[in-house]
Amino acid sequence: MPVIEVRNLRKHYGGKPAVEDVSFTVERGEIFGILGPNGAGKTTTVECLEGLRRPDGGAATVLGLDPWRDTAELRQRLGVQLQESRLPDKLRVGEALELYASFYRNPADPDVLLEQLGLSGRRGTAYRKLSGGQQQRVSIALALIGNPEVAVLDELTTGLDPQARRDTWEVIEGIRDRGVTILLVTHFMAEAERLCDRIAVIDAGRVVAVDTPAGLVASVADEQVIRFRPSEPVPDELFTGLPEVRTVTRRGEQVEVSGVGNVLHAVTSVLARRGIVAGELRVEQAGLDDAFVALTGRRIGQGDH
Ligand SMILES: Nc1ncnc2c1ncn2[C@@H]1O[C@H](COP(=O)(O)OP(=O)(O)OP(=O)(O)O)[C@@H](O)[C@H]1O
């Protein structure tokens, strides 16, 4: 039996759709990613799984339980890291863990958990005195203090520097190795690619693909991405009219053209005819980032390189 099963989930806020049609299943021991741009409906989906919101349509079960009806039972078995979870500034790390442990039937040993998360020296430190990465690890510890079978981690590494982010990824892999199934909400491509066994790509309240990171990349494997800085402004239409071109995106002055076949020749020819020089020209095979653009027509995870 899957650990999480979501079928045609739907949730509207005041008539406005947040989740239109979301279906996926998560198997025991997986790190399953929900990837999508801001406002895609990721948080609403996981809030339905946590019993915090009642779906308007469809069905969801977690560990065979109905999150809305069996909330009390589910809370004992599901760990939740809240988005931007904040604790009272003066609360010490050890106190926070003891407090949260008291909510559970069968809590983890706070000292063991702090050791596993590299926080054993911080037991007596006030929450506000911790670095961003340490605060994040405390919020992960709080999600795990009830010894959950499933943990939902929402925007795990948002706001962390690259080193703290990599350290956190190692922590998550360690938790999975202990047998905890993890549902990871993210808009960072590198995070999804590195950590997730499978990913549901969500856009505008709908699942547009569910696959392994490699499978998602393979779906655009014949695609190339050309990046360059034109010597003068060029309109998108110059490229979008070419049969080889799929998408045109811009990052500041840089133009990114993705396409298939001999797209490089097509792009450089059209530029040459106009006497435009393509500075800093680079050609790359498609990655998860590009698979996402191909699936949704949009780019997310900027700055995540
Ligand atoms: N309580 C609410 N009341 C009304 N609208 C809401 C509420 N919560 C979310 N929304 C809207 O529902 C849509 C989906 O939001 P949701 O937070 O689920 O997306 P998300 O993918 O998690 O985005 P983010 O990455 O920004 O958290 C958005 O358009 C959002 O503005």
UniProtKB/TrEMBL annotation:
Domain of life, source organism: Bacteria
Keywords: Antibiotic resistance, ATP-binding, Cell membrane, Membrane, Nucleotide-binding, Translocase, Transport
Transmembrane listed as a keyword: no
Alphabetical list of InterPro entries matching this protein: AAA+_ATPase, ABC_transporter-like_ATP-bd, ABC_transporter-like_CS, ABC_transporter_ATP-binding, P-loop_NTPase
Gene Ontology biological process terms, A to Z: response to antibiotic
Every ABC transporter domain range: 4-229
Cellular localisation: Cell membrane
One Gene Ontology term of the molecular function aspect: ATP binding
Name the UniProt record assigns to this protein: ABC-2 type transport system ATP-binding protein
